[in-house]
Amino acid sequence: MWDFHDGNEAVRLEKGIIATRTFFESMGNPTHLNAYSVGEERFGEIVDRLQARKVLPLGERKDITSEKVLEILALAR
Predict the structure, then answer these.
(1) Strands (DSSP E) found in the chain
(2) What's the confidence (pLDDT) of residue 46?
(3) How many CB atoms lie within 10 A of CB 31?
(4) How far is residue 66 from each of residues 28, 31, 53, 57, 76, measured CA to CA in Å?
(5) Is the separation of the CB atoms in 72 and 29 below 8 Å?
(6) By the 8 A CB rule, do 51 and 66 touch?
(7) Distance in angstroms (rounded) separating the CA atoms of residues 15 and 17
(8) Is 73 helix (H, G, I), strand (E, B) or coil?
(9) In Å, what is the CA distance from 47 to each residue of 15, 39, 43, 60, 70?
(10) Residue 58's beta-bridge partner residues?
(11) What is the pLDDT of residue 51?
């Protein structure tokens, strides 16, 4: 999407994350959970809802488990 070619895969991925975050924030959309008043105390509820909807595991490879979701949420604070 962003057409980055320089650097290894990790560098290109990081550039993509930064570009995507910058894009959304430039339109006034916060990109961290704390901006939406979603604290760590809600993480279990989020995972429970995903499990109740039978959408776990997530991802195109179905390798994002409930444990990974909790890790991702912690990083998104």
Answers:
(1) none
(2) 97
(3) 13
(4) 30, 21, 13, 7, 15
(5) no
(6) yes
(7) 5
(8) helix
(9) 28, 13, 6, 18, 7
(10) 64
(11) 98
| Rounded Cα–Cα distance for residues 25 and 10 (Å) | 23
SS3 assignment, position 64? strand
Q: What amino acid occupies position 57?
A: P
The pair of structure tokens assigned to 65 is: 């488990």
pLDDT band at 1, cuts 50/70/90? confident
pLDDT 10s digits, 8-30 = 999 999 999 999 999 999 999 99
CA-CA-CA-CA torsion for 40, 36, 50, 12, nearest 10 degrees? -90
At 17, the amino acid letter reads I
Cα(37)–Cα(39) distance, integer angstroms? 6
